Request: fold
Amino acid sequence: MVDPAFERWLTRWGLVVDGPGFSTLFGSKLLPVLKDGEKAMLKIAGHEEERRGAALMAWWDGDGAARVLALEGDALLLERLDGGADLAAMARAGQDEAATAILCDVAGALHAPRGKPPPASLVPLETWFSALWPAAETHGGAFAKAAAAARPLLAAPREIVALHGDFHHGNVLDGGPRGWLAIDPKGLIGERGFEFANLFRNPDAATALAPGRLARQVELVAERAGLERARLLAWILAYAGLGAAWSLQSGHHKAAETGLAIAELAGAELKR
Reply:
């Protein structure tokens, strides 16, 4: 039985159900469908982040991201990406550098200049980092180091662009002939270098914390994305602390430990 939330849009956009529906962590509902015989995904936003992300997807207009086929209110119709390759699997199977290179190239497409201003709903990085400051005051340690790295970055940003905001292996999918394409953005705006920091926490803790991995990946990302190495490390430190603060807030202590470990690794690389 199809969720009643989908019924209106199935009729309005002439869609045919093509699989079971499911829900996301934020309460959004998704349903595989066919639109004029082509595979698509119908998504009903359950949170402001999802609505903001949908507006950014529409602005990207299929360049580096899945194509938006229709967008109205909380409903989003996207092309369905079902190529056989997987970046997380690549990274775990000895192709970590190749996966990272692909991610850098997709980020480059997302950050390319457009002929129109980005959506006004995008959240500034200064706002996004709000959970880090109280964590630094309460816990000190790596949280304080992350906050100290974040403040000058946020105070004097460079190369300001629309940001995906949750850019990692699981949010860039194989689009077959269309190549690798991003999905599920948070919808932020700020310095371009921030986008790459999340790659260093992914695709999993074992990969992220493997000896020498962070240092190798920093060199690759800095060169491939055209970033200053020290500034990239500062973003990694800052974002690892922010992620750990979020994990503590939600009771995910193991994830917080991983974030703090990455923050310490980035801080050590910065001192070299």
